[in-house]
TrEMBL record:
Residues 60-357 form the Dihydroorotate dehydrogenase catalytic domain. PANTHER family: DIHYDROOROTATE DEHYDROGENASE (QUINONE), MITOCHONDRIAL, DIHYDROOROTATE DEHYDROGENASE (QUINONE), MITOCHONDRIAL-RELATED. This is Dihydroorotate dehydrogenase (quinone). GO terms for biological process: 'de novo' pyrimidine nucleobase biosynthetic process; pyrimidine ribonucleotide biosynthetic process. Its EC number is 1.3.5.2. Pathway: Pyrimidine metabolism; UMP biosynthesis via de novo pathway. Keywords: Flavoprotein, FMN, Membrane, Oxidoreductase, Pyrimidine biosynthesis. GO terms for molecular function: dihydroorotate dehydrogenase (quinone) activity. GO terms for cellular component: cytoplasm; plasma membrane. Its cofactor is FMN. NCBIfam families: PRK05286.2-5, pyrD_sub2. It is an enzyme of class 1 (oxidoreductase).
Length: 373
């Protein structure tokens, strides 16, 4: 049962707040929502109020994975907090973990507009930011003095610049960013290595296994002190995906996040009229759902003993999160579901997960991971 206050909050978001927000430029809304979130994170009473209204706790949801304790399996995916402003507030609305970034060695002002668009019928967002971020040094300054109320991850990717002409230059750029974070005092819990952003300039790619091997070889030399999860693409064939996983399993990588945005503008989950409005960018939300689930299934079946899986793409409800968990994901990330459903959805997903576990006679979330294989 959803608590009355959470239910009311959802109704208010759907009927009052969302209709207004969805009339305003999405980038403007994103920037201002993040600023409001940051402000709430600086005020203790606001955090307590949010905690009471939104967060849901249950020991059935707590897991220790890769040495990190996650109070619940629902995390904020990379891309929403690209300015590292929300680490103090997201636990209060119920998230179990959250990723900052993607952050690159050198700052990037973002691709040409539009960087963001809405596809309400497709339950999707068009994303064309191309790693808009302030660069690793600034993020180190912002986060070094903070204590985090939940596990925070830093997503690292290649600087979006045509000046990086070769694979070698790109690898040096990525390892430089990792070095800055390693040498900092940031108390982060994990890294994400984002090799799958579809919106970057130039033709550098880490997809062919030999390119991926070279990148991971150089990253291994850094002897990173935090676990690394690789953010995977979802547009590759099963064979291509497996050959990437073959490489990944030869390196000290804790797991894979499956996965990134939908590149295919013809995906059947995209409303054909809506999608025609965008001649650029790639898509989040429901168009990611099917392929992400197929690849979670494949990964759990063949690599489940070696790689932990974070499921991501199209999660809007507890039922959605539970499906990804039953297919093999130990943790789940989301962005679009929160934007379409409202911030109360995080607590509702956690509460719903506990109900679904009980319905199925399970005592702990870990018992559900991969049961559907
Ligand atoms: C506005 C926006 C920006 C994103 N930026 C990034 C990013 O910088 N790095 C990354 O790894 N993924 C990024 N993504 C992809 C998400 O992390 C996620 O993989 C994808 O949106 C599918 O999840 P969802 O359906 O819950 O949104 C972005 C997604 C959105 C909506």
């Amino acid at each position: 049962m959803i608590t009355p206050i959470s239910y009311a909050s959802g109704l208010t978001y759907q009927n009052l707040i969302k209709p207004i927000l969805f009339k305003i430029d999405p980038e403007l809304v994103h920037v201002h929502m993040v600023r409001v979130g940051q402000l709430c994170g600086q005020i203790n009473i606001a955090k307590q109020l949010l905690q009471t209204t939104y967060a849901y706790k249950d020991p059935m949801l707590t897991q220790k994975i890769a040495g990190i304790t996650f109070a619940n399996p629902i995390g904020l995916a990379a891309g929403f907090d690209y300015e590292a402003r929300l680490t103090q507030v997201l636990a209060s609305i119920g998230f179990g973990f959250g990723t900052v970034g993607t952050i690159t060695n050198v700052a990037y002002q973002g691709n040409s507009r539009p960087m963001l668009g809405r596809l309400p019928k497709s339950l999707s967002l068009m994303v064309n930011k191309g790693f808009k971020n302030e660069g690793a040094k600034t993020v180190v300054q912002k986060l070094s003095h903070l204590h985090f109320p939940y596990p925070v991850g830093i997503s690292v990717g290649r600087t979006n610049s045509l000046q990086l002409k070769t694979q070698k230059q790109s690898i040096t750029d990525i390892t430089s960013a990792f070095r800055l974070f390693e040498q900092s005092n940031i108390k982060h819990a994990y890294y994400e290595l984002n090799i799958s952003c579809p919106n970057l300039l130039g033709h550098i790619t880490f997809y062919p296994p030999k390119n991926l091997r070279k990148l991971l070889t150089e990253i291994k030399k850094l002897q990173l002190t935090k676990p690394v999860f690789i953010k995977m693409p979802i547009e590759k064939t099963n064979k291509e995906f497996e050959s990437m996983l073959d490489v990944v399993t030869h390196f000290p990588i804790a797991g894979v996040i499956i996965g990134n945005l939908q590149k295919n503008h013809q995906d059947p989950a995209l409303d054909p009229v809506e999608v025609k409005k965008f001649d650029r960018g790639h898509f989040s939300g429901k168009p990611c759902w099917n392929r992400s689930n197929e690849l979670i299934t494949l990964t759990h079946k063949h690599y489940g003993k070696k790689l932990m899986i974070i499921g991501c793409g199209g999660v809007f409800s507890a039922e959605d999160a539970y499906i990804k968990i039953k297919l093999g994901a130990s943790l789940v990330q989301l962005i679009t579901g929160m934007i379409f459903e409202g911030p109360q959805v995080i607590g509702q997903i956690n509460q719903g997960l506990v109900q679904l576990l009980k319905r199925d006679g399970l005592n702990h979330i870990s018992e559900a991971v991969g049961v559907e294989r």
